[in-house]
Amino acid sequence: MRILILGGDGFCGWPTALYLSQQGHEVAILDNLSRRAWDDELGISSLTPIATLEQRVAAWQHVSEKRIALFIGDLTDFEIVRAAFEQFAPDAIVHFGEQRSAPYSMIDRQHAVFTQVNNVVGTLNVLYAMRDHAPQAHLIKLGTMGEYGTPNIAIEEGYITIEHEGRSDTLPFPKQPGSIYHLSKVHDSHNIFFACRIWGLRATDLNQGVVYNIGVEQTERDPALVNRFDYDEVFGTALNRFCAEAAAGHALTVYGAGGQTRGFIDIRDTVRCIELAALRPAEPGEMRVLNQFTEQFSVLDLAERVQSAARKLGLETTIAHLENPRVEQERHFYEAKHTKLLDLGLQPHLLNEATITGLLELAVRYRERIDLTRILPTVTWK
User: Fold this and answer.
1) Catalytic residue among 19, 104, 148, 181, which?
2) 37 in any annotated domain
3) Is position 144 annotated as part of the catalytic site?
4) Which of 76, 92, 129, 352 could pair with 85 in a Cys bridge, judged by C-beta atoms 3.0 to 4.6 Å apart?
């Protein structure tokens, strides 16, 4: 296939681009390099040193003899999007091209507005480009399990059948997003649903859980191909942050009681889920929703697993329960369905001690790059 990856320089986009290229697909990346700019803005950096996008693509071509095309530009500029669609003529569009941090969206009004405009307008431009220039293409959009919130009922995969006053209908599952960022993803889902119903587009909305680990086999072939390792309070995901904290001798920072339970997925399964969705596309007029995670853990569960693995490496660390900067339930019911990707053939990498140990060892290797002043939460929801 010809697969256009929006946001292909980012944490999920880069390994996905390499993985799909390795599988024989013709891959192009459209990215405005904003993830790097946000590091500069906030004074943070990936724990692993990151090459420029041009260096990354050149290194991949050297080790694989496969070319990845580059388009540099912003999704909120429709002319950029239109030109990329016209020149590349994609069969599938993988959409990672959004501001993806809840804390970043909650810094202040400016960051909230930027997140909404960037994410919602960018996705609308993609939908119009599909309608006008690639109506048979398949949109594979990275959503988030955070759209659902934490309802006191089981979370279905996208839709729920409701009986009311003697009638029934299957409707989108109710959304209770917990941040301005998650709200933007809900808006995306509604806009995509509309475009599929009205224009006959085809789309798969992948409601992904929290991603851990950083690499796939392809990112390990050359130092210039290494993926991001975010550990800071704004972009750092829970497990990666805990491993960096343990390596630096810092307490593992659990927000509140730590009973917040979410779905989690290994980055190796993220790239495979994208491929499975591409190989089995949605039907014209369909917005298919797949819950993309493999296991459920509480934040405290993860911290205790990291603490145990760290001690076996001689890293003594404690668990600190901080005042929760977010507005969320710290103890709650959580049961989310996630069978559709398994039905498509996903064979999950489940979290084990070896994975955690590998992340800890990587964090120790780059320990001198850890900035402890960027770990404690400063962004609050109120």
Assistant:
1) 181
2) yes
3) yes
4) 129
pLDDT digits (tens, 9 = 90+) for 259-272: 999 999 999 999 99
Structure tokens at 105: 């969206």
Overall domain count for the chain: 1
Give CA separation, 140 vs 288, 338, 360, in Å: 10, 17, 32
Q: Which pLDDT does position 242 carry in this prediction?
A: 97
Helices (H) and strands (E) in the chain, counts: 13, 14
Contacts of 3 (CB under 8 A, 6+ apart): 20, 25, 26, 27, 28, 90, 91, 92, 93, 94, 278
Does the global pTM surpass 0.90? yes
Query: In degrees rounded to 5, what are phi and psi of residue 264?
Result: -130, 155
Q: How far apart are CA 294 and CA 292, in angstroms?
A: 7
Structure confidence at residue 174 (pLDDT): 98
Per the annotation, the verdict on 185 as an active-site residue is: yes
Cα Rg, the chain, nearest whole Å: 20
Token code pair at residue 127: 């939908």
- CA 104, 107, 108, 110 torsion: positive or negative? negative
pLDDT of residue 213: 94
Q: Which CATH number fits the domain that encloses residue 50?
A: 3.40.50.720
247, 363 Cβ separation under 8 angstroms: yes
Where does residue 161 rank: exposed (0-12), middle (13-18), buried (19+ CB within 10 A)? exposed
Work out the number of other CB atoms within 10 angstroms of the CB of residue 320.
14
Q: Which helix (H) or strand (E) holds 171?
A: strand 167-172
pLDDT at 92: 98
Range of the domain at 187: 2-372
Question: Do the Cβ atoms of 106 and 61 come closer than 8 Å?
Answer: no
Given a contact cutoff of 8 angstroms between Cβ atoms, the answer to whether 324 and 259 are in contact is: no
Q: Is 344 exposed, middle or buried (0-12, 13-18, 19+ CB in 10 A)?
A: middle
Which residue among the candidates 115, 185, 294, 317 is catalytic per the annotation? Answer: 185
Query: How many CB atoms neighbour CB 196 within 10 A?
Result: 22
Out of 144, 219, 253, 355, pick the active-site residue: 144
Residue 100 resides in a domain = yes
Is the four-CA dihedral 326, 328, 334, 336 of positive or negative sign?
A: negative
